Amino acid sequence: MLSELLQGTDIGGFLLIQDSCTYCGRDLLKSFIEAALNREEVIHVVGFDVSEGELKDGLKSSVFQRLHFHNAFADPLGWTDNSPFTVHQFSSSGLTELLNQTAQSKPATLVIDSLSWILRHVSPTAVCHTLQQLKKGGAVRTIIGLLHEDMHSRGIVGSVCRLATSVITVAPRTKADEGLAKITRRSKSGKVVQDEQIFSIRKDLTVTVLSKPTNFGRKQSNTEEQVDPTANLTFNLRLTDAEREAKEKLALPFVFSTEKKTALLHSGPGSGKILYEPDANDDYDQEDPDDDLDV
Amino acid sequence: MFTELNGILNASPESFTPGEFILLSDRQSDASFLIHHFLSFYLKARCKVCFVALVQSFSHYNAVSQRLGVSLTQAKEKGQLTFLEGLKESLSVLIPQEENAENQAMSFLRDPAAGLRSLYEFVQSSVVESNGGGGAEEQWGPPVLLVDDVSVLLSLGVRVGAVLDFSHYCRATVCSQLQGNVVMLVRCDGEAEEDDEGSQQLMRGLTHQSCLTLHVQGLPTGYCRDIHGQVELCWKKRQSDGQHTPKKVFQFKVHDKGVSFFARGTSSAVL
Q: Given CB atoms, is B161 within the 8 Å cutoff of chain A?
């Protein structure tokens, strides 16, 4: 599923990459940017967390004319007089204006690095509102965002995840260059698919998807194995054909066929009849107490 | 400067990676010996050092640095070291007198909610000044900012967000723009379960911003006379030689004039 997401077939979607202190999701974000650049898409990066040089490190320099970096790293709060981009310019109108500054023929992909920076200064409702408006408006083809999930409360993380069409949560593995990706994908019909994959990112930012984690594999093998109980015994549990026939013919004592039921319940001629005269003390109920039995 | 630590970090005063944000942290232990290491390291590397010292006095750092072979008084006279003595300067804010003009850097004490913009402006003026220096002054290397320590700002009433903004701006100016290094110490005393405690969130935020973290903690088995604790080193970026070695753990012992580092289980008391 990770490879499908890298191919970018999700138009109008919002892909969210969540990471934590233990594993940095920026390499995966750069792989997505690299894959999109190779598909000849126009990418706009709003960079708060890292500088332009650090983000472009590792990307192939031949495709940089389609990558527009908006420098929100140098002065995001406007402490100097000429700030290229401040955090308060993060609104749907501000971003649409920014995208329109570069003439483009087709809608661009917007990459936000990172949403955590914005959530520290802008209220979560405003951020979610902006993201929703960007998704609905036509200026942006897809949005890819990076979120540090250990920097915010669960409510805020949950709200942003709810807006996303795909969420990839990355975590470390015991092997240094491998990562574990938990992917949740919501399709337009409302169907939600979840998956877990182990991946590793090479130096040229291509992602190799390795096998699924071992606990998934173990569950599948248990259900597929059919154990034969009659094998490997010191005595014989198997039946010959004659024995199997006799076994199937046997009528079990408490398994009733319809003929047996009617014979038991309605006694035939010749069998004893019971005549009963109730006493004064008896509480004779005309109803048949066995009426509700389903025999 | 501890030579064994230089070997572990693959750095020497002649060659070290520029543009790095190094985070020193400790939990119920004392990582200040690492601050003394980096202070003497960068002074020996002839860098222009700006030291924001909020927890100890100048004479304390001077005494320890002399044991490591560096004189802070001389560095200050030559103009290599800019020292902000937080303890002394805070008096000028809290008890304003006519002779001492208020140092703007500590003005956050008066209004902690306003943030650390003035402290950042002090740092910016002291590191940028080196580039504009005239020919008469000695030419120093790239600027370095050391902060000891950042968690004390939380106890002075500054919000976690404001401290993270301050560290972001320092990183943008010193690491990105001027290709210098930043070293910050953050201390965490609480237990790991208190998730919404400010110092935990501050440490997480700074870990996201840093490219190398050194985390000092006591031994999990308790106090030991011969081993004073363990250091966990975490590199975030891939190393320049292509290898990805994210974590290393060493144990250490602090001596009078240095610190010895060794792999776990190889202390001289044990072998």
A: yes
User: In terms of CA atoms, which chain B residue is nearest residue A150?
Assistant: B204
How close is the nearest chain B Cα to the Cα of A129, in Å? 22
Buried b (16+ CB within 10 A) or exposed e, A6-34: bebebeebbbbbbbbbebbbbbbbbbbbb
Contact A151 B208 (CB under 8 A): yes
B200-225 pLDDT, tens per residue? 899 999 999 998 999 999 888 888 88
Residue of B nearest to A172 (CA): B246
Whether A24 contacts chain B with CB within 8 A: yes
In chain B, the number of structural domains is 1
CA angle A89, A95, A99 (to 5 degrees): 140
Please, are residues A86 and A76 in contact by the beta-carbon 8 Å criterion? yes
Pairing of strands B21-27, B212-217: parallel
Which residues, 6 or more positions from A14, have their beta carbon under 8 angstroms from its beta carbon? A131, A135, A142, A143, A144, A145, A163, A164, A165, A166
Could you give the number of structural domains in chain A? 1
Residue B212 near residue B23, CB atoms below 8 Å: yes
CATH code of A14's domain = 3.40.50.300
Joined tokens for residue B29: 């232990």
Under a CB-based contact definition with an 8 Å cutoff, are residues B183 and B22 in contact? yes
A7: containing domain: 2-213
Predicted confidence (pLDDT) per residue in B3-29, tens digit: 888 888 888 888 888 889 999 999 888
- Domain contains A167: yes
How many Cα atoms occupy the beta-carbon half-sphere of B140 within 13 Å? 30
String of b and e for A149-173 (b: at least 16 CB within 10 Å)? bbbbeeebbebbbebbbbbbbbebe
Mean pLDDT (10-residue bins), chain A, 295 residues: 77 88 89 87 90 85 81 88 83 83 79 91 92 84 92 92 92 83 88 89 81 55 63 84 89 77 69 76 74 74
User: What is the helix (H) or strand (E) element at residue B78, kind and residue range?
Assistant: helix B72-78
- B267 part of a folded domain: no
Tokens matching residue A152: 């915010």
B117 chain-A contacts, CB cut-off 8 A: 79
